[in-house]
Specification:
It is a single chain. The protein contains five helices and two strands. By secondary structure, the chain is an all-alpha fold. Strands 1-2 form a two-stranded antiparallel ribbon. The protein is extended, with a radius of gyration of 21 Å. The N and C termini lie far apart (59 Å).
Length: 141
């Protein structure tokens, strides 16, 4: 088996695992009802994703994003001041250098997502597209 075959086999396993978790664990918990068992591929069902569904699913995911993330130290204690999301959009390296990737990942992994609703946090609504200052050097000839 060549490297590409190993990669593709592992990829199929990861995708299948994620789909199984989503279909049989996440969706039933979200909808508060069980999903039907998979009965095999049906050629009569369109397998694509409509633009409307894609847009709605994309926006729905944004309602789960909290306004910041917590940090946990090596003893698994939360640090008192979370880091605001808008301060790390384009460059999280300062937070990672200051606290280390372990504290950032442990804090994010133990943080509860926002409630499923139609509300987007201010950091996504107003801060994501704020004007960023940068130096532009133009030479006219």
């Amino acid at each position: 088996m060549v490297d590409e075959d190993v990669y593709m086999k592992a990829r199929r396993m990861v995708v299948a695992t994620m789909q199984s978790i989503f279909l049989y664990e996440y969706l039933p918990a979200l909808l508060n009802e069980p999903t039907d068992e998979y009965k095999g591929y049906d050629t009569d069902i369109y397998p694509g994703v409509t633009t409307e569904f894609h847009a709605a699913a994309f926006r729905y995911g944004h309602t789960h994003i909290p306004p910041g993330f917590y940090l946990r130290d090596s003893m698994c204690r939360f640090r008192p001041n979370p880091i605001r999301l808008c301060n790390t959009y384009f460059d999280a390296s300062a937070a990672i250098k200051m606290y280390g990737i372990e504290e950032v990942l442990m804090g994010m992994a133990s943080q509860i997502a926002e409630k499923e609703d139609t509300i987007l946090i201010d950091d996504l609504r107003g801060e994501l597209y704020r004007l960023r200052t940068f130096r532009l050097s133009i030479t006219y000839t």
